[in-house]
Design a protein that fits this description.
alpha/beta; OB fold (Dihydrolipoamide Acetyltransferase, E2P); Rossmann fold; five-stranded mixed β-barrel
């Protein structure tokens, strides 16, 4: 271990020795940890997981007897293919460091995967190396795809989204191309054997079904989801298949042994359909580009032939015949001109006649109008008389009603109006003392009275 420049050679402290600040001590400790310990994989169980608003992820990685704090920065966390949760066993690729602000020892996590993926990946690499050493993946054994396949075979699950992606792509690029499905599960314990049998079935029935290219497709997923396509027997069957095979399994970043064993690898199922239909799609584009050129060439050729025919016809006609034809043409034109002039004169005469009839029909007729005026005048007089009679009757009715409601008429029917000595109308017996003077108005005069007692009505 190199000597610490802050201590003397013999390790003993001296009065002139430099005194470190806490910040300097933590920085030296962090640099020492990061330089002494390499980037490594650490496995354990997640606990105390916190997702900060900044996008950083903080958690504790622990096993049965120890724990360590971990931090995964946002630019790394957003690349995760799964969502970490408390209690999940994971493997973290991390750098040992120290958080200087608190002096806490922690791991700076670069990558995170569920526990167990590492062993699968190692098994994948061992099998891949074995098959590659046998020459199974040699480029020399790969076959080119036919430019214009008669039909495409597809090995996948009928319920897979990959099948829909392939069919949509083919409908857009080569809608005439027939498709034959060889169904097989793409995930599960029996998936490798079923996929292998489907590939063999496609090879046996290729001539009968008219299939020239085989697509092996599946959507994306984890390494466990795609593990059926890492089967050794399936890889050997793909290489032995009499049909050229295009493998479109997972996404662009996913690789399986089937990708290496196939004649062509596509990044996605849609990409596999595009590669298999590339010839037909290019042919459609070429035909679309050639169509206007062919149309122009045909039109140009017809024009040239028509001109040659016209010139030949001119050379074959005798001048006397041409004169006769011209005279006939002139006679026909003169006849047409005569008929056209006659038709125009007839049309003008007809228009003049119709205009005269409309003018006579629109001329005023005083006798008819006078009779109508007399009729309307009589109707107006009768209406005015009826209106005056109705208004007079209503006025009489209102006058009679008003007379009926007049105070004098009410008094004449036996009613009376009682007033106190101030002339105010009395409406209640309450509050009128005995002996009070009361004036009673009758229909024909007035009585001056005095209250001698009260009684109930």
């Amino acid at each position: 271990m190199p000597a610490n420049p802050l201590l003397p050679a013999n390790g003993a402290a001296t009065p002139a020795a430099q005194v470190l600040s806490v910040s300097e001590l933590n920085r030296m400790a962090r640099e020492l940890l990061e330089s002494a310990l390499p980037l490594m994989w650490v496995g354990g169980e997640i606990s105390n997981l916190v997702r900060a608003a900044s996008g950083h992820v903080y958690f504790t990685l622990k096993d049965a007897s120890a724990q360590v704090r971990c931090a995964m920065w946002r630019n790394r966390a957003q690349l995760l293919a799964f969502r970490p949760e408390n209690g999940m066993r994971v493997e973290a690729r991390a750098l040992v460091t120290l958080y200087e602000a608190r002096g806490d020892y922690q791991l700076s996590v670069e990558a995170l995967r569920p526990a167990g993926i590492g062993s699968l990946f190692e098994a994948f690499n061992r099998l891949k190396a074995k098959l590659a050493a046998e020459g199974l993946f040699d480029e020399a054994g790969r076959r080119a795809l036919p430019r214009y396949p008669r039909a495409l075979g597809i090995v996948t699950s009928p319920q897979a989204a990959a099948l829909r992606d392939v069919l949509v792509t083919l409908r857009r690029r080569a809608p005439h191309l027939p498709v034959v499905l060889y169904p097989a599960p793409v995930q599960g314990a029996d998936a490798p054997a079923r996929l292998l049998e489907a590939v063999r079935c496609a090879g046996r029935r290729a001539a009968e079904d008219g299939v020239d290219v085989l697509l092996l497709v599946r959507g994306g997923g984890s390494i466990e989801d795609l593990w059926a396509f890492n089967d050794e027997a399936l890889a050997r069957t793909l290489r032995a298949c009499p049909l050229p095979v295009v493998c479109g399994v997972g996404h662009e970043t996913d690789f399986t042994l089937a990708d290496f064993a196939a004649d062509l690898r596509a990044p996605t199922p849609s990409g596999a359909a595009e590669l298999a239909s590339a010839g037909w799609y290019a042919a459609r584009a070429e035909l679309a580009a050639l169509e206007p050129r062919l149309r122009r060439a045909v039109e140009r050729r017809f024009g040239e032939l028509a001109q040659r025919l016209d010139r030949a016809a001119l050379r074959l006609v005798h001048p006397r015949e041409r004169l006769r034809r011209e005279r006939d043409t002139l006679a026909r034109l003169g006849e047409r001109l005569h008929h056209a002039a006659a038709r125009r004169l007839e049309a003008a005469d007809l228009r003049a006649t119709r205009a005269g009839l409309r003018l006579r029909a629109a001329a005023p007729r005083p006798q008819a109008l006078a009779a109508r005026v007399d009729m309307l005048g009589g109707r107006l007089a009768r209406a005015a008389t009826r209106l005056l009679e109705a208004r007079s009757q209503r006025l009489d009715a209102l006058a009679a009603h008003l007379q009926h409601l007049a105070p004098q008429a009410v008094l004449a029917r036996g009613y009376a109006i009682a007033r106190d000595k101030q002339g105010r109308v009395l409406r209640s017996a309450a509050g009128i003392p005995e002996g009070a003077a009361v004036s009673v108005q009758l229909a024909d005069g007035r009585l001056d009275t005095r209250v001698i007692g009260h009684g109930k009505a």
